[in-house]
Amino acid sequence: MEVVLEVKNCNVDIQKERILRDISFHVKRNEIMALVGHNGAGKSTLMKTMIGSREKITGTLSIAGNDQDAQYKSYKRNFTYIPEEPLLFNELTVYHHFKLYQKSYSVPEDVFESRVQTYTQGFELKDKLDEYPEALSKGMRQKVQTICALIPDVPVLFIDEPFMGLDVYAGRFLEEELIRKKVQGACIVLTTHQLEKVSELANRYVMLVEGEVASSGDVSEFHELERRST
Ligand SMILES: Nc1ncnc2c1ncn2[C@@H]1O[C@H](COP(=O)(O)OP(=O)(O)OP(=O)(O)O)[C@@H](O)[C@H]1O
Q1: From the centroid of its chain, how far is CA 38?
Q2: Which residue in 19, 60, 96, 221 has the most C-beta neighbors within 10 A?
Q3: Ligand 1 atom closest to Cα of 42?
Q4: CATH 3.40.50.300 domain residues, the chain
């Protein structure tokens, strides 16, 4: 299977302190990879490094062969990201947020309209298209952010703590949609404190302990490791 996301020997410092040490792993097409670890293990820092908002000291990152440093524009066009906290523009309506993503990722008009229809129905946001973020609840803002990231078909989808703030219906809808994207060839990287919460969804895991990869493999192997250590 084809490797889509490749992380090689990444070291990241924050205020002169080494937060991530020599991180290497890869994710292939049709894989959902869970980044797991305790509070402070480095999951968010690694996510920020992968989306390019935190600089690495050394190492390389690539998506579909595009190097993060040498080909940043094409690297960026090959992923979308759902942050833990929604980051929306006060001056744009819900629909205009979707349009922004359509333009940035060159999504054809018919695909765009049909996805907006499907997702606003699935996430129960149909009557909110003309609203501005300040008129939405936190969960609704999270749904808007989620839809934005789902509209384009990109090789990699990064999600920081999926299902956070989503109600049970929206969570189920998102889960089904992520599986659909995976089957169609996407690779999905998500962070979580508890692998059990995503064990139905993720097939691979990378476990961080104090900024290092402590173990990685199939989710079924993780459960076996846990069973043997308890
Ligand atoms: N902006 C920052 N300034 C200083 N230290 C930071 C900063 N961001 C993260 N750190 C430190 O980096 C380490 C890793 O933090 P990170 O947020 O990546 O962990 P995490 O695994 O995502 O944790 P959580 O599960 O609590 O979200 C922690 O020791 C944290 O204190």
Answers
A1: 18
A2: 19
A3: 18
A4: 14-78+154-230
Q: Can you read off the two tokens belonging to residue 67?
A: 């190097």
Distance separating alpha carbons of residues 143 and 25, to the nearest angstrom: 30
Residues with Cβ within 8 Å of 24's Cβ and at least 6 positions away in sequence, in order, are: 7, 8, 9, 10, 213
Classify domain 14-78+154-230 by CATH architecture. 3-Layer(aba) Sandwich (3.40)
Give the per-residue pLDDT at 204: 94
Does ligand 1 come within 6 angstroms of the Cβ of 37? yes
Ligand 1 pocket test, candidate residues 10, 45, 195, 209, most atoms within 8 A of CB:
45
83 CB under 6 A from ligand 1?
Answer: no
**For ligand 1, what atom is nearest to the CA of residue 41?**
21
- Closest to 178 (Cα-Cα) out of 107, 100, 122, 117: 122
Is residue 59 classed as helix, strand or coil in its secondary structure?
Answer: strand
Please name which of 32, 7, 31 lies closest in space to residue 20, comparing C-alpha atoms: 7
